[in-house]
Each structure stands twice: as C-alpha cells, then as structure tokens.
Amino acid sequence: MKIQIVATISTDGYLLKRENKREKQISSTKYGFSALQKRADLMLHKESSLIALLEEKRQSSNTNYLVEATPETLDLIKGLFLYHLVEELILYILPDQKENGIKLFDLTSPSDWILAKEFSLRDTSRCLIYHKIK
User: How far is it, in rounded angstroms, from Cα 1 to Cα 57?
Assistant: First the structure.
C-alpha cells in the first residue's frame, strides 16, 4: 500500500487552494495533479476510514492511494501522519506569500522526510517530492 499526499503550498509553507490558471500549469507535468489522479487506484477523502487503511497496510496490499491536502481533508491527513501511513509528499510550491493559515509541516516533522526529487514547473513554481524516512 502506498499513500501519497499532494499539496499546493506558498513559499512560506501555508496550504493554498488550487486555482484554475495555475492548475493548468501544474497539471501539464508528469507529476501534475491530473497525472497523479490517473495513476492512483483510489482517491482518499475526508470520510476515508483510517482503521480500514491500517488493516490494509497490515495485509500488504499493492493499492496506491492519493489524497489532496485541503482544509476539508486535514483531519484525515493528521491521522495518516499519526499512524505513519503516508509514504510520499508531493508539494507544489507557488511563488506566493500567505503568512497565515495552515502549515503542512505543522502536521508532520520535516525530519521524517527526505527530498527525493525537485523540479521547476513552467512558471516560477516548483515541485518537491519527499519520501518517508524508514
């Protein structure tokens, strides 16, 4: 089982909403949200069961799950981090400063993650892919 979290964040680390204009720029890459959705077996949502996911992890399934970090999915994401179910973070960093809101790395420790890939997108945005340190 593999669980990926995808998030759009500001340069100061706050969650941002995906906007149509920027979404097109991000989605056109191999790690764009649309491509990730197509490769995922299932999308997780705020009502997804942590207990069912823990059981599935115990059974070592090959299912690939994707969840987008939004205010609605934060409780689920907190649980996924708490039970060490997340294996990959895919962060789209946009050249915005938000200065308030929800910081993704307030939910997990940056020291639990290692940068696996980094690349620039079409504008001044970047995509960072982190893997969980085992």
Answer: 6
